[in-house]
Amino acid sequence: QVPLKPGRSLMDWIRLTKSGKDLAGLKGKLIEVTEDELAKHNKKEDCWICIRGFVYNVTPYMEYHPGGEDELMKAAGTDGTDLFDQVHRWVNYESMLKECLVGRMAVKPIAAPKGEGCCIYSVFLQQIPEDKTILCMRTFIKSIYFFSSLCFLFYSYDWFQTDSLITIVIYTKQKDMNAELVIVDCQDKRLRGEIIVDDHSYLVEVGRYCNFACETFSLLVNIAEKVGKVEIILKKKDNIHWKMLGQPLEHHNTFIKCKDRGLFYRKCKLVSKMEVTHDTKLFCLMLPKSTHLRVPTGQHVYLKQIIAGTEVVKPYTPVLPFLPLDFKEPSHCDGAHIYLMIKIYSCGLFTQALDDLQIGTYISVSNPEGNFKKSQVQTSEDLFLLAAGTGFTPMVKLLNFALTEVSCLRIVKLIFFNKTDDDILWRNQLEELVLKDERFEVQFILSQPTKDWVGKQGKISSSLLSEFVKRSRKDSKVLICICGPTPFAEQGVQ
Fold first, then answer.
1. Tally of CB atoms within 10 A around 16
2. CB neighbour list of residue 82: distance below 8 Å, 6 or more residues apart
3. Which helix (H) or strand (E) holds 467?
4. In 166, 290, 294, 449, which residue has its Cα 20 to 30 A from 268's Cα atom?
């Protein structure tokens, strides 16, 4: 993010979109935009961008963009869908830029060259003896079928029933299947079960007829890890015989990339808010009884709120309710709750709205996202964690995992940057953790210390890091994880 000028906050943008001004510059008309026309609008004072087939005039949004004008200009006059997905596909651009809509991209006709419609197939067949042509065509068709149906060799489902229960069985044949790879939601007569496989997922999604007792019965998920079988058990609302599980929905029984599915949200109940520091709170959200969701280490979720009529979404990394000093998952971290440590900004529209939420109200929480792999830690010997402010939050579960399950680690060191002593999150717990495990070290570094501060001071730099980031052995395998504001992360990587 970059500092924005006064009067250029998210709330200011929302007010501008509701002011009635012609932000698209077309006096309310929508037009069809060709590639040539789109390419003409590639300057800061005249910038159009295409996202998923829709063209927006983002010129008036330039000064309001949290990532700065230069980031928007990377997609000026072009299709910016891929760039948008890489940076923040979770943002509801349709809501944020609805008043900037220019129109749709024109469909570009594709004409097949004369006589070349079956060029590949005819050349292929001309080289084959006449009596074997049919055999080769059959083989060719079978190959197409094989590749298009590859996932169904590994992923399939079935369902069974008793008088009161429905059991859905998903066969994955994944030997490393675990609870974090299974996401199940049952709401509004809709059942959604998703199995995560690296950057892909298999989805079972039915609706209309599936009438479950979601409000009174917690669904059960059983996993046979060795054979990759997942059982989802739900209670019927009425003890009657079902003729079908439900009406298959659009993406039912599909195996595609996770990023192509879009985000799925469920409403979670706010059950508590606790102060951590003067400006940071620990929010506890309770998942619905009919949801099975475990957020993997190093991954984040998105919170969604409607503010002043506009949908606003922000990412946050779940933490534990406290740092476990006996290296066991706390008993009340049973998967029914999500804990989020969030800094409340005085001029932050989203965090102010979060802070104003009353206990018992609901907020939408997405499926987890992220690319971090635990195997990166499991193959390391020295682990260094560089965190600034609430960039500490991904380190909480990572610390617990590293010290609990990775015996090959010789050093686990947290280098924690903050402005003042009062900003340090969970300082006492971290200092207690140092006493509990000889592998763990923590170094607090302040950029604006008081006169009483006797520890290290400064900002992230090569000279400062060279003092603290040192291998335990000459040839040890090192993993360094960094999280914090963009300038901090970029400087740390450099």
1. 17
2. none
3. helix 462-468
4. 166
Give residue-wise pLDDT tens across range 40-80: 999 999 999 999 889 999 999 999 998 888 889 999 999 99
Length of the chain: 494
Strand 456-457 vs strand 265-275: parallel, antiparallel, or unpaired?
Answer: unpaired
More confident residue, 151 or 56: 56
CA atoms within 13 A on the CB side of 411: 20
DSSP string, 265-278: EEEEEEEEEEESSS
Q: How far apart are the first and last CA of the chain?
A: 18
pLDDT at 231: 94
- Residue 278 vs residues 99, 274, 281, 344, 424: alpha-carbon distances, Å: 38, 11, 8, 9, 10
Residue with tokens 């508590």: 272
Q: Which amino acid is at 41?
A: H
Neighbour count for residue 400 (Cβ, 10 Å): 21
What are the tokens at 123? 């050349």
Which contacts (CB < 8 Å, 24+ apart) does range 476-479 have? Answer: 476/381, 476/382, 476/410, 477/379, 477/380, 477/381, 477/382, 478/380, 478/381, 478/382, 478/383, 478/384, 479/376, 479/377, 479/380, 479/382, 479/383, 479/384
